[in-house]
Amino acid sequence: MKSICIYCGSSVGASPVYAEGARLLAKTMVDNNIALVYGGGNVGLMGVIADEVLRLGGEATGVIPKALMDKEVGHGGLTRLHIVKDMHERKAMMAELSDGFIAMPGGIGTLEELFEVYTWAQLGFHEKPIGLLNVNGFYNGLIGFLDHVINERFLRREQADLLVHAEEPAALVDMLKAYRPQRHAKTFDRVTAGKII
Q: Which residue stretches, if any, does this entry annotate as coiled coil (predicted)?
């Protein structure tokens, strides 16, 4: 594993534990010679993890749409910064440049990015590992909701297991490095004469 795409907030959040989690993840990645790929901003947790990776001597590649260069304050000190035309190109390039994905705490943009690559994995469009860095129990509600989705038969357990999670960065990175893809085809219910079969 040479690079991990990190999805995270453009805010630092309500507690300093989130920034500390970002710094610990940066250290774990640099210690494992894993480069950072992320959204290219210099604000919030995005800026924290990029700054720490660079401070520790690691590589950080940002991908940012031209329209967000001012809003997200594009980071000027990265190893590489790709400026792209829109969010679709941003997400596609981030995925292409990465060997795995981690979602740190963040808002709806972070969740949207996470669920897109998670859906791609479920559909078999890629076989890269995906993880949640569950700092301070941030993702407990989401993990519980996915169990509810399984119980309601909209998701199979093996598909849910495509998304791993841990509270500590070192444990999560180890899980991503140990990941071995397995085929879990998305199933579709057929409706015949008003009955689901």
A: none
Residue 152 has pLDDT above 90, yes or no: yes
Which structure tokens are listed for 45? 């947790």
* CA pair distance 91, 88, nearest whole angstrom: 5
pTM: 0.92
Which pLDDT band holds residue 181 (cuts at 50, 70, 90)?
Answer: confident
pLDDT in tens, 80-97: 999 999 999 999 999 999
Three-state SS letters, the chain: CCEEEEECCCCCCCCHHHHHHHHHHHHHHHHCCCEEEECCECCHHHHHHHHHHHHCCCCEEEEEEHHHCCCCCECCCCCEEEEECCHHHHHHHHHHCCCCEEECCCCHHHHHHHHHHHHHHHCCCCCCCEEEECHHHCCHHHHHHHHHHHHCCCCCHHHHCCEEEECCHHHHHHHHHHCCCCCCCCCCCCEECCEEC
With a CB cutoff of 8 Å and minimum separation 6, the contacts of 93 are 63, 82, 84
The C-alpha atoms of residue 21 and residue 25 are separated, in whole angstroms, by: 6
CB-side exposure of 42: number of CA atoms within 13 Å?
10
CATH number for the domain spanning 191: value is 3.40.50.450
Domain housing 64: 3-196
